[in-house]
């Protein structure tokens, strides 16, 4: 019940923010940004309370709500949590606060509608992370897509319309494949037990023939691989990232991509263990190509946000590599990388937004020597670039190291190629940092304001904490995963 | 908290304070803080080293917290101090302290003084973590930290493009080595299921599958693991083929060069190999490669040093060459001698760099040897100090360099993994060393004054007693440091009984090794006559193509630019638009074409519709008939 309240509370407070924006109540002028910040803070506290006060052991999926929704098709409204989803939901809430803070001054038009879209996306993402009825999962999957498209299309940069359509089509076409697979699974359930069922736990009991399972697995895999994204279906990401407003990029890189990784773990690996193990060599090859190709493409970019977008592709390659290694160490690495990348890429996009507000350009050739006038910004830029290239002591290193160590047990040659990504990441991170902050000072820029320092330092502190004490995440054995 | 755990904490605290308050701290506070923290660390390590010799198990450990665990193997943040790391922390903090003291005065007028000192402190922190780490992952943390700090310090004057490029080059080139090392860690973990250094050294001896191989001895896991670790060492220690970053790293301020070359960074690779001796001993082939790498590097670097015009670049190449000696020693299994040379080299190289720094500052940032000359009269104290440093570098009898270099050379001939040919390499290298050292001294301090008379020597340096003090201490250490015999032999494992030493050393070896430096000096005395005689005609750098080739580091930069950098940039530029995206957008374009065609057909003209209707009917009828 509580969980439902939190998910729909986000949606409702989004509506509230939309309608109450710029209205005067009791002599106070209501502002959407304050309302949504308050809502996110309250709801995240509620969520933390819910988890801490719960007596349940989250090693296994724990059901929180299950009521019939569409009786004729035996579709339920069912929400459940386990350690994986709790971790990702906490990340989502944290980045929700960051998203609202980075939009604080950037968004000036249609603020009410903007915050509605932002909160609706978060509600959708939350739903995706805790839905265990597959129809409901698909519903939330679509819920997070539409407002995200709107954010890109309305508040984006110069080519926003194109980017929004591209984003929409890529995700939509791939999720259609997933829908087909979902319906087929329900049908198989009917064949085997006599009832239609969309319930995840029921599906786990199914015994699917390998040849059928292979096709169904592929249906899910493609949907999640597009979201992750993996080469060769990654190309929506650079456009969407580049054109989205800052909060949109933070949201996309920080949590939206993680829904892809979450889906791979929860549905592809768990529902079709045998089929995905057979598929692993191909998936791992795609992952390694993503790592190297993403790093190489990032190096070639002149656009700050585009560079970071390609680096995301490279980082998410590590996640896919780890997931398809079928190794406990690698799984832990995948989870740490997911969280770490969520924080570090969010940080870099926030930085891109901060710089864009000052120089009104994303082009690296328009930048240079910012350290002179903005040393604090430079310091944070250095730290975030260091996180991106995996400096030990920051969270990304732990994730990448565990992923690679784990994957090496299974695919040693592939990991050697993937390790080239470490060199590639050093190259693009250097290009990014040096072109922005070093060299001859081209312009004088204002140093960070208090709000921006709060954003940057909260991200940096969490990166350092997770980097030096990753047991916060790892003490969950994620035993249920194996 | 134990004393050991607090050792890296002093410079770390200083770093944090300096970086937080930045320019708000004035010079006095910033320098007291950074230099004071280094003094504390140096005293602390002296105390620890003293304690170590009393300690019965001769190992001090400090466990801080569990970092993470890989499967069942724990990776801890914990420190491990034995005789080897004790030598290292003494060098790092001791020499580091003197360099900090020097830097505080040298960099006094820089507007980013506190940032500079903060980076220097962080450099020391990273290096301390590196040498104290009890597992390879923590060592890797220090390892990467050192890389990052060197990047920041080389590019400290970031407004000049050359410095930025040099910093980038240093970082990326060493990162290539680091990546090899990371893969080495994966392999070690796969075969030994541990990343703890002491455990690995143990397990490497006892795990049969580690050294055994199905194909041949050259393909065992130990072989590859050692080779990959060597890759990391080669990157950080600037050995062939990853040596190209070191000469360019001279772009940084002079104290940084001293720090990189003497106390930190380049010694890391030597330390790594010495530390992982258990793994290296299992593969004599790789030991042999290490020796050859060292031998070839010391010769090529010596040749390159002969042709340099820049005083700092001569010293840079000489570092490369001296590290080559250390590698040679490690490859020959003379672990103690290698580490001993590391220590003495730290003393005299710091002395040389810092003295060179005062000279450069006195000449208003003139680094070109051909624009110096006759400085013996102008700067007699500096000249004497420099001469002491060079005497150690040449290994004249009595100096510290003599003891350590002789120890290395003496171990080569009969070593199973080195041998006479490498002994000759070392001797030839010693000859080259003494020739380029003489050339350096003649050009800078003797001969005719080749800089404008009006250029006065800066006064504030002359008066600074602290600056001189740091140099004097280093000079004393350089002369007498060789008397501190360090015995690490109990620490290192020895060869498997299967390998027996070769024939005994012939009696003339020792004599040749002692005479060689003098031969070099004698040769230079006559060959470089024009450099030291007053009133000789104006000097210019030689334009002989071979000399120019050597001056540019024997073409390695060009080689890498042609075969690695340019292709990478070319492919990156070529595919900037993203091939996959283009292919997918082709689909969109194709659909767009069809949309245009179809929408063009919906033009509202009755005759079009009639024609379309008629044609479709014909088509339908045909289909039905067929």
Account of the 3D structure:
The complex is a heterodimer of chains A (482) and B (626). Chain A is 75% helix and 4% strand. With 482 residues, chain A is mainly alpha-helical. Chain A has a two-stranded antiparallel sheet with strand order 1-2. Chain A starts with a helix and ends in an 8-residue tail after the last helix. The mean pLDDT of chain A is 86. Chain B is mostly helical. Chain B is built from 29 helices and two strands. The interface between A and B is large, with 53 and 51 residues. Chain B: This is NADH-quinone oxidoreductase subunit L. Chain B: Residues 67-117 form the NADH-Ubiquinone oxidoreductase (complex I) chain 5 N-terminal domain. Chain B: It is found in: Endomembrane system; Membrane. Chain B: Pfam families: Proton_antipo_M (PF00361), Proton_antipo_N (PF00662).
Quick structural gist:
The complex is a heterodimer of chains A (482) and B (626). Chain A is mainly alpha-helical and 482 residues long.
- Sketch the major β-sheet of chain A: 2 strands, antiparallel
Q: Gyration radius of chain B, to the nearest Å?
A: 30 Å
| Strand content bin of chain A | under 5%
Biggest pleated sheet of chain B: 2 strands, antiparallel
Q: Please, how many helices of chain B?
A: 29
Coarse morphology of chain B: globular
Q: Would you identify the regions of chain B where 5 or more consecutive residues have pLDDT less than 50?
A: 496-500
Write out the strand line-up for the largest beta sheet of chain B, numbering strands in chain order.
1-2
Q: Which pair of chains has the greatest number of interface residues, and how are they split between the two chains? A: A-B, 53 and 51 residues
Q: Which radius of gyration of chain A do the C-alpha atoms yield?
A: 22 Å
Number of strands of chain A: 4
> Helix fraction of chain A?
over 70%
Oligomer: heterodimer
Strand order of the largest sheet of chain A: 1-2
**Structural class given helices, strands, pairing of chain B?**
mainly alpha
What is the SS-derived class of chain A? mainly alpha
Transmembrane segments (chain B): 6-22, 29-49, 83-104, 116-133, 139-158, 254-274, 286-307, 314-336, 342-363, 384-403, 423-446, 466-488, 508-528, 606-625
Domain NADH-Ubiquinone oxidoreductase (complex I) chain 5 N-terminal (chain B): 67-117
Subcellular location (chain B): Endomembrane system; Membrane
Main location (chain B): membrane
């Amino acid at each position: 019940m509580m969980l439902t309240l939190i998910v729909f509370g986000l949606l409702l407070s989004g509506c509230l923010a939309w309608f109450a924006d710029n209205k005067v109540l009791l002599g106070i002028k209501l502002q959407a940004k304050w309302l949504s910040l308050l809502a996110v803070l309250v709801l995240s506290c509620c969520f933390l309370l819910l988890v801490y006060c719960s007596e349940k052991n989250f090693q296994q999926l724990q059901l929180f709500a299950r009521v019939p929704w569409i009786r004729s098709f035996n579709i339920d409204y069912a929400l459940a949590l386990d350690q994986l989803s709790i971790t990702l939901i906490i990340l989502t809430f944290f980045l929700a606060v960051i998203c609202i803070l980075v939009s604080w001054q950037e968004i000036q038009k249609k603020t009410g509608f903007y915050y509605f879209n932002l909160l609706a996306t978060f509600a959708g993402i939350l739903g995706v992370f805790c839905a265990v009825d597959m129809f409901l999962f698909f519903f939330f999957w679509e819920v997070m897509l539409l407002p995200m498209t709107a954010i890109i299309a309305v508040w984006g940069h110069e080519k926003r319309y194109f980017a929004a359509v591209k984003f929409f089509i890529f995700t939509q076409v791939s999720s259609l494949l997933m829908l087909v697979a979902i319906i087929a699974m329900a049908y198989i359930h009917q064949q085997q037990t006599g009832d239609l069922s969309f319930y995840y736990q029921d599906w786990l009991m199914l015994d699917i023939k390998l040849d059928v399972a292979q096709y169904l697995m592929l249906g899910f895999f493609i949907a999640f691989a597009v979201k992750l994204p993996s080469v060769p279906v990654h190309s929506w990401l650079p456009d969407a990232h580049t054109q989205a407003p800052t909060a949109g990029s933070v949201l996309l890189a920080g949590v939206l991509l993680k829904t892809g990784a979450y889906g791979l773990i929860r549905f592809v690996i768990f529902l079709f263990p045998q089929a995905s193990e057979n598929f692993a060599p191909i998936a791992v090859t795609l992952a390694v190509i993503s790592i190297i190709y993403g790093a190489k493409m990032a190096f070639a970019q002149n656009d700050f946000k585009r560079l970071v977008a390609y680096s995301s592709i490279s980082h998410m390659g590590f996640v896919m590599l780890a997931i398809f290694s079928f190794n406990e160490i690698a799984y832990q690495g995948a989870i740490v990388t997911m969280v770490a990348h969520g924080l570090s890429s969010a940080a870099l996009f926030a930085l891109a937004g901060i710089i864009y507000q000052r120089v009104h350009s994303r082009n690296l050739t328009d930048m240079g020597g910012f350290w002179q006038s903005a040393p604090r910004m430079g310091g944070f830029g250095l730290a975030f670039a260091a996180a991106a290239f995996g400096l030990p002591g920051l969270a990304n290193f732990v994730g990448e190291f565990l992923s690679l160590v784990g994957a090496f047990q299974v695919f040693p040659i592939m990991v050697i190629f993937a390790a080239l990504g470490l060199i590639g990441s050093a190259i693009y991170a250097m290009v990014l940092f040096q072109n922005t902050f070093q060299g001859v000072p081209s312009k004088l820029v204002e140093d960070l304001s208090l709000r921006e320092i709060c954003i940057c330092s909260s991200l940096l502190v969490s990166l350092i904490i997770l980097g030096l004490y990753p047991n916060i995440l790892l003490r969950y054995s994620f035993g249920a995963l194996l | 908290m134990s004393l050991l755990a607090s050792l890296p904490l002093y410079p770390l605290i200083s770093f944090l304070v300096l970086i937080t308050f930045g320019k708000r701290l004035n010079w006095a506070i910033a320098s007291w803080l950074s230099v004071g923290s280094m003094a504390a660390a140096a005293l602390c390590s002296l105390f620890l080293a003293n304690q170590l010799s009393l300690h019965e198990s001769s190992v001090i450990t400090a466990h801080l917290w569990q970092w993470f665990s890989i499967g069942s193997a724990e990776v801890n943040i914990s420190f491990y101090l034995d005789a080897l790391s004790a030598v290292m922390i003494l060098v790092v903090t001791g020499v580091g302290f003197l360099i900090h003291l020097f830097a505080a005065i040298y960099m006094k007028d820089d507007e980013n003084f506190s940032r500079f000192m903060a980076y220097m402190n962080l450099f020391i922190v990273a290096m301390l973590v590196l040498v104290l780490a009890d597992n390879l992952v923590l060592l890797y943390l220090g390892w990467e930290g050192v890389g990052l700090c060197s990047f920041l310090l080389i590019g400290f004057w970031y407004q000049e493009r050359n410095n930025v490029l040099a910093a980038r080059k240093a970082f990326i080139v060493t990162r290539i080595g680091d990546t090899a090392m990371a893969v080495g860690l994966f392999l070690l973990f796969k075969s030994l299921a541990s990343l703890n250094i002491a455990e690995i050294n143990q397990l490497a001896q006892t795990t049969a599958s580690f050294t055994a191989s199905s194909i041949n001895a050259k393909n065992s896991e130990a072989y590859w693991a050692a080779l990959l670790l060597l890759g990391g060492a080669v990157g950080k220690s600037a050995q062939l083929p990853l040596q190209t970053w070191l000469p360019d790293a001279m772009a940084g301020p002079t104290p940084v060069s001293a720090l990189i070359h003497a106390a930190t960074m380049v010694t890391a690779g030597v330390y790594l190999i010495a530390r992982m001796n258990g793994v290296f001993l299992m593969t004599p082939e790789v030991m042999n490669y290490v020796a050859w790498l060292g031998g070839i590097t010391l010769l090529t670097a010596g040749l390159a040093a002969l042709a340099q015009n820049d005083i700092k670049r001569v010293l840079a190449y000489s570092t490369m060459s001296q590290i080559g000696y250390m590698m040679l020693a490690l490859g020959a299994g003379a672990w103690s001698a290698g580490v001993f040379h590391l220590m003495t080299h730290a003393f005299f190289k710091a002395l040389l760099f810092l003295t060179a720094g005062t000279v450069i500052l006195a000449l208003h940032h003139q680094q070109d040897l051909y624009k110096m000359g006759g400085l013996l009269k102008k700067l007699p104290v500096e000249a004497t100090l420099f001469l002491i440093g060079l005497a150690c570098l040449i290994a004249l009898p009595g100096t510290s360099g003599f003891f350590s270099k002789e120890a290395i050379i003496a171990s080569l001939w009969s070593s199973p993994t080195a041998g006479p040919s490498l002994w000759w390499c070392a001797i030839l290298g010693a000859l080259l060393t003494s020739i380029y050292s003489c050339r350096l001294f003649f050009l800078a301090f003797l001969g005719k004054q080749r800089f404008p008379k009006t250029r006065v020597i800066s006064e504030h340096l002359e008066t600074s007693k602290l600056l001189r003090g740091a140099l004097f201490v280093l000079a004393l250490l350089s002369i007498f440091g060789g008397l501190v015999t360090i015995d690490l032999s109990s620490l290192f494992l020895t060869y498997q009984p299967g390998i027996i030493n070769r024939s005994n050393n012939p009696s003339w070896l020792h004599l040749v090794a002692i005479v060689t430096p003098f031969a070099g000096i004698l040769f230079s005395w006559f060959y470089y006559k024009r450099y030291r005689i007053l009133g000789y005609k104006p000097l210019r750098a030689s334009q002989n193509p071979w000399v120019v080739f050597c001056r540019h580091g024997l073409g390695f930069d060009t080689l890498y630019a042609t075969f690695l950098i340019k292709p990478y940039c070319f492919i990156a530029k070529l595919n900037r638009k993203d091939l996959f995206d283009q292919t997918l957008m082709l689909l969109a374009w194709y659909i767009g074409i069809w949309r245009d065609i179809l929408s063009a057909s919906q033009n509202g003209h009755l005759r079009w519709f009639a024609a379309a209707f008629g044609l479709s009917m014909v088509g339908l009828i045909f289909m039905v008939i067929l």
